[in-house]
Sequence to fold (266 residues):
Amino acid sequence: MSTPATSPMRDDAVTICAISIVAFVVADMLHEAVGHGFIALLTGAQSGVVSSVAWSSTFDSRLVSAGGTLVNLAAGVIFWFAMRAARNANMPTRVFLLLSCAFNLFDGTGYFFFSGVTDFGDWAAVIAGIHPHWLWRTLIAVSGLAAYFAVALGIGRAVVRYLDIPASDQKRMRQLMFVSYFSAIAISVAAGLRNPIGMQLLWQSALPATAGANSGLLWLQYYIPRRLTPERPPQPLNRSYAWISVAAACAAVFIFVVGPGITLHR
Fold:
């Protein structure tokens, strides 16, 4: 009698989407509210408006411009160590920690490359007026690209080591990465459409930053060594109504409260 073939392991796409939304909202608020807004209020701003796509106030400085990226990088490192420490946590928690690490580090390293190439955005403001300008643009672009690629390699390996998804399971890997990527874009656009500065900021900065910065999710699987295998048996990501509920609440606040902008005072 033949042994029936083992059915391929499946993850719940709705739960992936939910966890991705929460992880992206956390990374975005760390960038805009903490990295730009909080630092601005600490260093001289009396008030300002924070939305999902920008911090706006009459006070500005190189530190405020750099703050979003620096906070994302610091948060990404913290999430990385949290992910390693949570090796025995349940699957949804590990997915959240990995995606939070990815969104923060991709945003942090990707911004260097983006500003270096386009001379636009936070790091263009940081290096404005510093000469020779072309050299500084080249330095941040090249270093950003190298750091971004290193992060993509690290996240790819982490998917195998900490989520126990075999590198050979391309279908499962692709589902996790693609659903996470497009969920981030969807929530970014939904909130960004309500931003108080105007649609031009969404199309010129927020959307390209989200789509470009997180594009590593679309191709990192191709750089994971096939010899890399999980240390434990793979586990599926099952439907989690708790995460879906949290994501629905986060999305509502992000779109309808943060999207139009919140005024913060010192």
Observations:
- Confidence is low (pLDDT under 50) at residues 1-7.
- Residues 12 and 238 are 5 Å apart (CA to CA).
- Residues 13-261 form one domain.
